[in-house]
Specification:
The chain contains twelve helices and 13 strands. With about 350 residues, it is α/β, with parallel strands linked by helices. The model has no long low-confidence stretch (mean pLDDT about 95).
């Protein structure tokens, strides 16, 4: 099928495009400049640089012309900060423009849509007692995005929401999300201190399979919780330490109350800047200090995701972080969305 993608030069979009092309589909993409230096993009993908938010409805109709599939691998994530209420920023970039895109896509005869979302939506639904949408504007925006997108779904317009977890693997020239972690570990000379709990994760190659599988297999409207490998933070940090060259460094688990105490101090400093975060740092302990695990049977298995080397993928991310911090890679594109 012919597929139009927003964000095809990003880490997730490019891997999705690669998998789709390998399966015989044709992919055209609209992405924000610049293209990361050294990025290995699929040669068969048609790339146009620009912002979908600045395009007219007619210009977008031209992009959708002749396409059966649409992939939205764009938007902003929880790391973005701004003046309160920060929810309005997430609405501006993740909800309002997507609603417009879905309306136009449906008008143009597109039949299948995949949207890259967040696994925080999954936990907001299954951990209702933690009131994640109340305390975290970013998580509320992702739930609102899901509800809006799924409202478009019917038998002729299939909509898949991918509730994506932490994803490992590197794109040359693009800054990994884990840069802060490598800096933090380097600053802890004697031992690494981290909260209890853990998270689910995948490799970027698996996300490419997820995007392709969702386009090909989804019927109606479905939100897929995505997770393949469940690791505690200690298990994860042992892998990180290995690739940082300090495999024997001790790891100490911080009690939740101490984690919250440190978060309160960070929050006071942050509030002094006048900006608001998408996550309430103290309340986020309800996620960070728990096992945010997802069984692969909920999303990855139905979409045909295959096993991969998560250890090596974590290593790719950590090695690129080290090269950026050591000045071996300069002008890396920050992962703020496409």
């Amino acid at each position: 099928m012919n597929i139009f993608m927003i964000g095809g030069t990003g880490l997730l979009g490019s891997e999705g495009a690669k998998e789709l092309i390998n399966r015989g589909h044709h992919v055209s993409s609209l992405s924000l400049p610049p293209i990361p230096e050294g990025a290995q993009l699929p040669g068969q993908m048609e790339i146009k640089l620009g912002s979908y938010m600045d395009m007219s409805d007619d210009e977008l109709r031209e992009c959708f012309s002749g396409c059966e599939g649409f992939v939205f691998a764009a938007g902003v994530d929880e790391r973005v900060e701004g003046p309160p209420p920060i929810y309005e920023l997430f609405k501006k970039f993740n909800i309002t423009p997507l609603e417009r895109m879905l309306r136009i896509a449906k008008e143009c005869g597109v039949k299948r849509t995949v949207i890259c979302g967040s696994y925080f939506s999954h936990f907001a639904k299954i951990w209702s007692d933690k009131q994640l949408t109340k305390w975290h504007p970013y998580i509320r925006s992702r739930i609102d995005q899901e509800e809006m997108a799924l409202s478009f779904a019917d038998k002729d317009f299939r909509v898949a929401i991918l509730e994506l977890p932490y994803i490992f693997g590197a794109q040359p020239g693009r800054e990994p999300v884990w840069l802060f972690l490598v800096e933090m570990i380097r600053g802890m000379e004697k031992k690494t201190m981290y909260p209890k709990g853990g998270t689910t994760m995948t490799t970027v190659k698996q996300i490419g399979q997820t995007i392709a599988g969702a386009l090909e297999r989804t019927e109606g409207g479905v939100a897929y919780p995505i997770g393949y490998y469940n690791l505690t933070w200690v298990e994860f940090l042992k892998i990180v330490h290995k690739y940082m060259g300090c495999p024997d460094k001790k790891i100490s688990t911080i009690p939740t109350f101490l984690y919250k105490l440190g978060s309160k101090q960070m929050m006071k400093k942050h509030e002094a800047t006048g900006n608001e975060s998408g996550l309430h740092i103290v309340k986020f302990a309800d996620v960070m200090c728990n096992n945010a695990f997802i069984d692969k049977s909920l999303g990855c298995d139905p979409l045909g995701v295959e096993p991969d080397d998560i250890d090596a993928a974590i290593g790719e991310s950590i090695k690129l972080c080290i090269d950026i911090l050591d000045g071996k890679v300069v002008n890396a594109v920050k992962m703020k969305g496409e």
